[in-house]
Amino acid sequence: MIWNETFECMGRDELHLIQSSRLRETVERVYANSPFYRRKMQELSITPEDIQTVEDLVKLPFTVKTDLRDNYPFGLFSAPMSEIVRLHASSGTTGKPIVAGYTRKDLNTWSEILARTFTAGGCGKSDIFHIAFGYGLFTGGLGAHSGAERIGASVIPISTGNTEKQIQLMTDFGSTVLCCTPSYALYLAETIEKMGVKDKLRLRTGFFGAEPWTEAMRTEIQNKLGIKAYDIYGLTEVMGPGVSYNCSEQNGMHINEDMFIPEIIDPKTLKPVAQGEIGELVFTTIYKEGMPVLRYRTKDLTRLVYEPCPCGRSFVRMEKIKGRSDDMLIIRGVNVFPTQVESVLLEFPEVAPHYHIFVDRVNNTDTFEIHVEMRPECFSDNLSRVLDLSKRITHRLQSVLGIGPVLKLVEPNSIQRTTGKSVHVTDLRKVY
Ligand code: AMP
Ligand code: ZN
After folding, report:
1. Rounded to the nearest 10 degrees, how much is the dihedral formed by the CA atoms of 404, 405, 411, 415?
2. Are strands 296-302 and 334-336 parallel, antiparallel or unpaired?
3. Is residue 420 scored above 90 in pLDDT?
4. Where along the chain do its domains lie?
5. Is the CB–ligand 1 distance for residue 245 below 6 Å?
6. Percentage above 70 pLDDT, the chain
7. Residues 6 or more apart from 369 whose CB is under 8 A from it?
8. How far, in Å, CA of 145 to CA of 333, rounded?
9. pTM value?
10. Given the CA of residue 328, which atom of ligand 1 is nearest to it?
11. 183 CB less than 6 Å from ligand 1?
């Protein structure tokens, strides 16, 4: 079964008409309701009448993460709070998170695109979904949950953590579908092996995303869990998971183009790249009410594939994410920017702003270590003072980042200096 086949398989001409009409509606909506977008459009001397078809998209202003941060919390909303029925949030570049608001119609759209995702992976009402994405402000848990309910499956909202108990329930309840981050899938697989319960599992399918992963990881997950593993992509600013999804071909992710118009730009010139070239993925949401975004720069690098897919869906495919055009790290599913770390360190006069972040993956779990130099006048062998300082900084980092690093206070001048742009991160994981 293909969910809402009429959209997923419609001809490109018909899609163009729908996209153009939805784009016009979206631009009118943001111009009328969002002072932020009205001002941005006025700065470029454009009005909603200038936007008639998809080709006019390039006239519109870009939106970036800092626009959301600068207008925290609700400055980009295009619907009154009385119409907003759900809020989600994700990390911004410094202390404040970025916030997304959904109307009832938006939640309906979201569950629709996830229903498409799950049916594209061959799932239906007789499946039992084990949803081990985090529930809460993060979009993963509740997003996947709503799609699984929409297709009539039985849903286990297990969320993250307590891995052995998860596996116990997975075997007791006979879960057939697993949704989580790919690194957690590998961790689960390892624990299942250790517990010796692989033959008790009924899993046959998995949907994994929220962080980058390679084809090698896909093969490993499929082999270890004995399932087919599908990629699912999305971001809070645009909707959450389900913006694009693998079909049975597992070769690129179909973008829900009746809801989101993709562009690929050169992150330096901001001009569109030639068709098929790699660049930064940009989305304009055309069916959202709560927080539509115009030309949102995801900073994710990929390319679009327009060749027809053997599955019959006409939506364009995006290849696996190949990297980022900024320095955002995703550590244990949490977005971390070096600027966030820096802003915390600057709060402590005892340390210098010379630091280095080390990220690695050991036993399928991300490790996160920060080395920071102490100022010469504060550097001492008074162990209890150093420990106390280390504790205070770690605590503050944990509360700002949403994830706790291992902090090492190091000697003055021990972190390598660079003559050019300073390099603050060593990421040894092979995720792209
Ligand atoms: P968040 O808004 O916190 O869910 O983070 C969204 C970001 O997670 C995206 O911009 C990507 O960088 C990353 N991401 C989400 N899904 C995937 C995926 N399937 N593959 C690679 N990266 C992903
Ligand atoms: Zn396909």
Report:
1. -140
2. unpaired
3. no
4. 1-325, 329-431
5. no
6. 99
7. 357, 358, 359, 405, 406, 407, 408
8. 18
9. 0.95
10. 12
11. no
Look at residue 1 and tell me whether its pLDDT is greater than 50: no
State which amino acid sits at residue 389: L
CA distance 170 to 195: 13
236 CA to centre of ligand 1 in angstroms: 9
The pLDDT, as a whole number, for residue 382 is: 86
Q: How far is CA 297 from CA 20, 39, 243, 280, 293, in A?
A: 20, 19, 14, 7, 10
pLDDT in tens, 375-390: 999 888 888 999 999 9
Q: Encode 176-197: b = buried (16+ Cβ within 10 Å), e = exposed.
A: bbbbbbbbbbbbbbeebeeeee
Return the CATH architecture of domain 1-325. 3-Layer(aba) Sandwich (3.40)
Task: Report the top-level CATH class of 329-431.
Answer: alpha beta
Q: Which of 208, 218, 233, 337 to mutate to test the pocket of ligand 1 (most atoms within 8 A of CB)?
A: 233
CA–CA dist 178, 176 (Å, integer):
7
Locate 71 and state its tokens.
């207008």
pLDDT at 4: 56
* Nearest atom of ligand 1 to the alpha carbon of 333: 3
Asked whether the beta carbons of 370 and 333 are under 8 A apart, the reply is: no
Give Dmax over CA atoms of the chain in angstroms: 72
Most ligand 1 atoms within 8 A of CB, residue of 238, 245, 302, 321 to mutate: 321
Q: 17-45: string of b/e by CB count within 10 Å (b at 16+)?
A: ebbbebbbebbebbbebbebbeebbeeee
CA of 279 relative to ligand 2 center, distance in Å: 22
Residues with CB under 5 A from ligand 2 (ion): 247, 249, 309, 311, 313
Least confident of 105-109, 140-144, 362-366, 418-422: 418-422
